[in-house]
Amino acid sequence: MSTEPVRVLLVDDQSLFREALAVLLGVRTDIVVVGEAGNGDEALRRAAELRPDVVLMDLRMPVLDGIAATRRLRVEQPGVRVIALTTFDDDEDVFAALRAGAVGYLLKDVSSARLVEAVLGAARDESVLQPSVAAKIVARFAQLPEADAPPRPQPLVVPLSDRELDVLRLVADGRTNREIATELFLAEGTVKNHVTNVLAKLNARDRTQAALRARALGLL
């Protein structure tokens, strides 16, 4: 496993907020802030130069907004993971950001511990969602008209264990592996193994898709 720190690019039109993030993340040895940008257009240029692992992307910015920048970045650098970090959690922003390719969606009032966990999780290809955002996704899926809903998944070949169901419910609430470990009194490595098993059994590529398929199967 690589021991290199996660390379992060900060994108926000408020310089004071960028500076605060840089200070917050700068105390970590497993994260390094490689650069900053004040709008989406600058973010694309800086990302091409710096090749970050993770981009913390504001959504409402001048010149080029965060959603358009995320969409282009995912095409130009598919390996980069984008986390939307914004003040707003209205449905339009949430679903537009996720459709554009963001792997996470957090609000700016997020705790420092959760932000750090989100950055490290994104670098491991995990999806990290604010609990209120995860709830919006599941609620939107539940409200789809029957004609528009995806075909109901086939029953699981291998059912989830009781503990895997516990983990799945917390995943659907937008909890990180560390938070799940604390909630269930488990080691974080054990939680990671449970999440891996849950994704495999649900044939889901990430945590968001797992929550949606679990909802379709009536597991949530």
Describe the structure in your own words.
The protein is α/β, with parallel strands linked by helices and 220 residues long. The chain has 2 domains: 6-129, Rossmann fold, CATH 3.40.50.2300; 146-216, Orthogonal Bundle (Arc Repressor Mutant, subunit A). The protein is 51% helix and 13% strand. It has 10 helices and 6 strands, in the order E-H-E-H-E-H-E-H-E-H-E-H-H-H-H-H. The protein has a 6-stranded parallel sheet with strand order 2-1-3-4-5-6, with helices on both faces. Helix 2 (40-50) runs parallel beside helix 3, helix 7 (162-172) crosses helix 9 (188-202) and helix 9 (188-202) crosses helix 10. The longest helix has 15 residues, at 188-202. It holds the Pfam family GerE. The modification 4-aspartylphosphate is found at residue 58. Residues 153-218 form the HTH luxR-type domain.
Strand order, biggest sheet? 2-1-3-4-5-6
Number of strands: 6
Q: Which ranges are low-confidence, i.e. pLDDT below 50, for 5 or more consecutive residues?
A: none
- The H-level CATH homologous superfamily of the largest domain, spelled out, is Response regulator
- How much helix is in the residues? 40-55%
Give the overall shape, derived from the CA principal axes.
Answer: globular
Q: Report the portion of residues in β strands.
A: 5-15%
Give the overall pLDDT as a whole number.
85
Number of domains: 2
Query: How are helices and strands ordered from N to C?
Result: EHEHEHEHEHEHHHHH
DSSP helical segment count: 10
From the 3D structure, determine the CATH topology of the largest domain: Rossmann fold
Name of the CATH class of the largest domain: Alpha Beta
Which class best fits the helix and strand makeup? alpha/beta
End-to-end span in angstroms? 34 Å
Note the main sheet. Answer: 6 strands, parallel
The assigned CATH architecture of the largest domain is 3-Layer(aba) Sandwich
What radius of gyration results from the CA coordinates? 18 Å
